[in-house]
Specification:
The chain contains 13 helices and 22 strands. The protein is α+β, with helices and mostly antiparallel strands. It has two domains: 194 residues, Immunoglobulin-like, CATH 2.60.40; 288 residues, Rossmann fold (3-Layer(aba) Sandwich), CATH 3.40.50. The strands form five sheets. It has a seven-stranded antiparallel β-sheet with strand order 14-15-16-17-10-20-21, with no helix packed on it. Strands 1, 2, 11, 12, 13 and 18 form a six-stranded antiparallel β-sheet that branches. Strand 15 and strand 16 form a beta hairpin. Helix 3 runs parallel beside helix 12, helix 5 packs parallel to helix 10 and helix 8 crosses helix 10. The longest helix has 24 residues. The two termini are 72 Å apart. The relative contact order is 0.13.
Length: 564
């Protein structure tokens, strides 16, 4: 019975060893973001890119699931309209285009689960925030109402941009490159701000000039200087007179002109800056009590307004904001050259004519040309079996079609191309490369599933945590073909346990052998006792003497009987 029990115990131990040696990955050992939402195969919006792996099966294979884009990787965006609603600059055609664009991105955000917020700023003599940043889906009606509103009295483009900048600066959750400004104006501005205060306008005036009109700090103030001074006192590089009307012929001339008058404003010993005054309702009607002395070197209000606006605009460019400028002139002042001058560092001096580019930036952040590169590493091998590969896009599961050895296509199109292609690259840098030929959206993410086999099997006893891959990187390209920031997927892990070897049984004790030492002869002490020496004592000689003595006694008795 003992022997049977020991055999059963040894068999059970072997079974445990076999089971543990196969290895296991439990959900707790799968490494992915803690706040990832839902199963990767669902069509509901994901919070962020995911990569997961199942436990190892009896063939040491794991099923890997890679899904994207999450809402975070699609990234939230901000859009602020900066609208010149003063005078005749509010042209219906460009505004109708803007409202059509708003409708399109609202619907796309709703369909694709995009996070887009829109704000509206109108500028007249100051910046008016008509609508703070608002979700384009839930707040669509409020945004549209703000765009349809109107303000009058004065033109201060600097104030409008400063108000927009304050809104965008405050939203620290959105990356700078995902903050978009849409400026619509005729390019006229003659008021400006100081110290970033978009609610307080300033201007300057030559007052009533002899034989001329008092323009009271308005759009035509430059004429007082140009019409009442010597026009030939200074030349542009092309030989034309250094006057405002010539400066407005090209962005290059305007830049040269503004640089000169800015220097006069800041550095002249005549202290031209002292003639600034706040543009109140009273000043708009009556002018200033401190007019500028008329002089060819005296900056007029439109000069200061232009470089103040440019300073604010370039600060937004330098902050990384996407600046979009639209021009439509119907007023008597043509400011197109000034708008082109503003865009010299952001759009090569070109003005926008439609909303296609900005729409693509907003709604197609992961578009055709985007790739995912998945480097598998040394511990696992990709199972190059089409039966174990699948891809889901837009809620539809697509089976792979073999294009070449290790190259698969998903979703064949009428022209013979594929919506997605997967390339397997074997070798030292074993990897998978998935290439998109269409845009992906968070509401219905792309889900790639494939299998890997553990090949670098651990042998040391213990539980081993193994990375399913070395890295996986999404390289997005937006709808305009512009490369965005790369995103790394989490690296999942599985565990593999090697049991410690069963300990060997202890050997049985061997019988004790007799001592090889010879007995030590002892003698009696004076009292007849045996000394306690600790030496080995043998009783055999004593027994022999006793037996001999008994024999002698027996012989003596017999002899006596015979004698009797």
């Amino acid at each position: 019975m003992c022997r049977l029990g020991g055999a059963l115990k040894r068999a059970a131990t072997v079974g445990v060893v076999v089971a543990l040696t196969l290895g296991m990955a439990t959900p707790a050992t799968m490494s992915f973001a803690d706040d990832a939402a839902g199963d990767a195969g669902q069509s509901s919006a994901l919070e962020q890119n995911q990569k997961m792996a199942t436990e190892l099966d009896e063939n040491l294979e794991t099923r890997v699931t890679l899904s994207f884009p999450g809402k975070r990787e699609a990234e939230p965006s901000d859009v602020v309209f900066v609208l010149d609603k003063s005078g005749a600059s509010a042209q219906m055609d460009i505004y109708n285009q803007a409202k059509g664009f708003l409708s399109q991105i609202s619907q796309k955000a709703k369909d694709d689960g995009l996070d887009i917020k829109v704000g509206v700023v109108l500028f007249n003599k100051k910046g008016n925030i008509q609508q703070q940043l608002t979700d384009v889906v839930t707040g669509y009606d409020d945004i549209l109402a703000a765009m349809n509103s109107s303000v009058r009295s004065g033109t201060n483009m600097d104030a409008g941009l400063l108000a927009a900048k304050s809104i965008l600066d405050a939203d620290t959750a959105v990356k700078a490159e995902n903050k978009h400004v849409i400026l619509i104006s005729d390019g006229a501005t003659y008021l400006y701000c100081k110290n970033g205060d978009y609610a307080t306008p300033y201007t300057r005036s030559f007052g009533k000039v002899e034989g001329g009109k008092n323009f009271m700090g308005g759009i035509w103030e430059w004429q007082s200087r140009e019409y009442h001074t010597n026009n030939a006192w200074k030349k542009f590089s092309d030989g034309s007179n250094f006057i405002f009307s010539q400066a407005m012929k090209s962005p290059e001339k305007l830049g040269e002109y503004l640089a000169y008058y800015r220097d006069q404003y800041q550095n002249s010993d005549k202290n031209w800056a002292q003639y600034d005054y706040e543009y109140t309702a009273e000043a708009a009607d009556a002018g200033t009590t401190n007019p500028i002395p008329i002089d060819v070197t005296a900056p007029c209000n439109i000069d200061v307004a232009f470089w103040s606006t440019d300073d604010t605009f370039q600060s937004m460019v330098n902050a990384g904001y996407d600046m979009n400028v639209y021009y439509k002139n119907a007023a008597d002042f043509d400011g197109q050259v000034f708008l082109q001058y503003l865009t010299r560092n952001s759009n090569n001096g070109q003005l926008d004519t439609d909303f296609a580019d900005i729409k693509a930036k907003l709604v197609d952040k992961i578009a055709a040309g985007s790739t995912v590169e998945d480097f598998i590493g040394a511990d696992f091998d990709f199972v190059n079996d089409p039966a174990k590969i699948s891809l889901t896009a837009n809620g539809e599961k697509l089976a792979p079609e073999k294009i070449d050895d290790g190259v698969y296509g998903f979703g064949k199109l009428a022209n013979g191309s594929y919506r997605f292609t997967l390339e397997y690259v074997n070798g030292d840098q074993e990897m998978l490369k998935l290439t998109l030929s269409e845009a992906a959206s968070p509401s219905k993410p792309v889900v790639l599933e494939y299998s890997e086999r553990l090949v670098n099997v651990p042998t040391e006893p213990g539980t081993h945590t193994l990375k399913v891959n070395e890295s996986a990187i999404l390289q997005p390209i937006d709808g305009n073909g512009m490369r965005g920031d790369a995103y790394e997927f989490p690296v999942p892990t599985v565990t593999y346990t090697v049991a410690a070897p069963e300990p060997k049984p202890e050997p049985e004790a061997k019988p004790t052998k007799p001592s090889d030492k010879k007995p030590v002869k002892t003698t009696k002490d004076e009292k007849g006792t045996m000394p306690m020496t600790g030496d080995t004592f043998s009783i055999l000689p004593v027994i022999g003497l006793v037996v001999a003595g008994a024999a002698v006694c027996a012989a003596g008795i017999i002899l006596k009987r015979r004698n009797h």
